[in-house]
Design a protein that fits this description.
By secondary structure, the protein is α+β, with helices and mostly antiparallel strands. It is built from seven helices and ten strands. It has helices at 11-19, 25-54, 58-91, 95-114, 137-149, 194-200, 207-213, and strands at 119-121, 123-129, 154-157, 160-162, 168-171, 174-177, 180-182, 186-191, 217-223, 232-234. The protein is globular. Keywords: Coiled coil.
């Protein structure tokens, strides 16, 4: 029998096969490396997310959970207050009076945050003893930062009001706080939730352990909250200086009006 000729392939089929991607050994190896790298990153992220909590005791985890829940409750209360203020300003019959009261309330809040108004309320008084003279500015910075993270609303170190721009530097025989030399024992008055603030200072690996390793000690006294007597009073004020370069800017056109 004579061999029949093979059917000719369509030119379009040959063109498609020529343009189709072909996997080479180098491409396969690169794909395997990328997959391995992605798997390693995922494992590392999961380990990082859990390693910080694995070493904590159950009681510490419960305190951290309670603190987080309390912060969420405070934020919800603040949101409800802001929404109520908005309704008064937009729907109230006496919108001018409501706006004036809201402005005064905001001015008081900003005065507390800026340190230009005295403050009082529940909180704690933390005293850092330094018999060895080993406390440095970094220790007080860590203490203030942990208090802020725990929701501190007003802080005073010795006779100096602490605000967002307060500077801590080492000085002979003490710590320079915004140009004022504070000496041991360092008395830190704080207004905020007493339980949350005191718990924040006792977290393992926190400021208490740091101070203890430096030879210093930390004593915390709570005031107010849960029916406890007394309150914390902060009388030191922060003097504002006029800006040298910054000037108020008029509002520019909105993004939609470009």
């Amino acid at each position: 029998m004579s061999e029949q000729p093979r059917p000719r392939r369509s030119p379009w089929r040959r063109l498609w096969r020529a343009g189709a991607p072909r996997a080479t050994r180098a491409q396969l190896l690169a794909g395997l490396l990328c997959a391995a790298l992605g798997f390693g990153v995922v494992v590392q992220v999961r380990q990082t997310d859990t390693s910080g909590l694995d070493d904590l005791r159950e009681a510490d985890l419960v305190r951290i959970l309670d603190d987080t829940t309390e912060r969420g409750d405070r934020l919800e209360e603040e949101l409800s207050s802001l929404q109520a203020t908005r309704r008064e300003l937009t729907e109230g019959s006496d919108s001018a009076r409501a706006a004036a009261e809201a402005a005064q309330q905001r001015a008081r809040e900003y005065g507390l945050l800026a340190g230009t108004l005295p403050a009082h309320g529940p909180g704690i008084v933390a005293t850092v003893g330094d018999p060895a003279g080993a406390v440095r500015s970094t220790h007080l910075i860590q203490l203030v930062q942990e208090l802020r993270d725990a929701g501190a609303e007003a802080i005073q170190v010795g006779g100096t009001r602490v605000v967002a721009g307060t500077a801590f530097t080492d000085a002979a025989g003490g710590v320079l706080v915004d140009g004022t030399t504070e000496r041991a024992p360092y008395v830190v008055s704080v207004i905020g939730d007493p339980d949350t603030l005191s718990t924040a200072l006792d977290i393992p690996g926190g400021v208490r352990e740091t101070l203890r390793s430096a030879g210093a000690d930390l004593d915390v006294r709570t005031a107010g909250g849960d029916g406890a007597g007394g309150e914390v009073r902060i009388s030191a004020l922060h003097a504002l200086s006029a800006p040298q370069y910054a000037r108020p800017a008029s509002p520019g056109p909105s993004a939609g009006n470009g």
